Amino acid sequence: MQVGVLVFTAAEELDLAGPWEMLGMRSLMAAKPSPVLVAQKVEPVRCAKGLTLLPHHSFDDCPPLDVLVVPGGQGTRREVDNEALIGFIADRAGSAKAVLSVCTGAFLLHKAGLLAGRRATTHWASLDRLRAFGDVTVVEERYVVDGPIWTSAGVSAGLDMALEFIARTDGPAVAGKVQLVAEYYPDGHRHGGAAAHARAPDYAHVVPRPR
Predict the structure, then answer these.
(1) What 8-state DSSP symbol labels residue 126?
(2) Distance in Å from the first CA to the final CA of the chain
(3) Is residue 118 part of a domain?
(4) Neighbours of 126 (CB within 10 A)
(5) Residue 85 DSSP class
(6) What CATH number does the domain containing 77 carry?
(7) Distance separating alpha carbons of residues 172 and 154, to the nearest angstrom
């Protein structure tokens, strides 16, 4: 399953790096192809906090993708009017098994015609802006799944979404291994049972108390 992660100027770093990390670990655990970075051109792209990335592929030479990850960030406010980028998302959505957006990446999905009539979420500060379209059922959850379209809340929520995507796609055993290697246990949810590993950190065994 080939994963492509979209990158553009002023994309939020963790929006793309979080899913990249989880899906990259999945590639190792399940012997799948490594994710690739895709941008309009193969040239350095400066993200929101100054991290500069060099894409593997341009829109023109991007290989077939089974999964497309679309980050958010301030750059989405400009890219929503980028016909080449929106066209790329719409085109790849037609052949991909799933499209995942993080944070305000949801607005790029909406512009590409992927959210009309669906349930979706985005960063808490942009929920009303998403509601204003009138054709999206906005759900205030960490992530929302509606058919092949996955959307998540802001920034770090992309980690949770990617982990759940792995659990549903490759099974809880693979997701549990990814979760263990990443030491990612923020919300008490444990995939598969890998947290019972003898060398797992103590906090992996503990479900947080309700507040």
Answers:
(1) G
(2) 39
(3) yes
(4) 20
(5) H
(6) 3.40.50.880
(7) 24
Convert the pLDDT of each residue in 23-56 to its tens digit. Answer: 999 998 888 899 999 999 999 999 999 999 999 9
Pairing state between β 149-152 and 143-146: antiparallel
Parent domain of 93: 3-205
Burial (CB < 10 A; 0-12, 13-18, 19+), residue 69, is buried
On whether residue 210 sits in a domain, the answer given is no
Q: Which amino acid is at 163?
A: L
In the numeric block, the tokens 């994309």 are attached to: 11
- Which of these, 185, 168, 206, 158, lies nearest to 19 by C-alpha position? 158
Q: Report pLDDT digits (tens) over 129-180.
A: 999 999 999 999 999 999 999 999 999 999 999 999 999 999 999 999 999 9
DSSP classification of residue 115:
S
Cite the active site residues: 103
SS3 content of the chain, % helix, strand, coil (to 5): 35, 15, 45
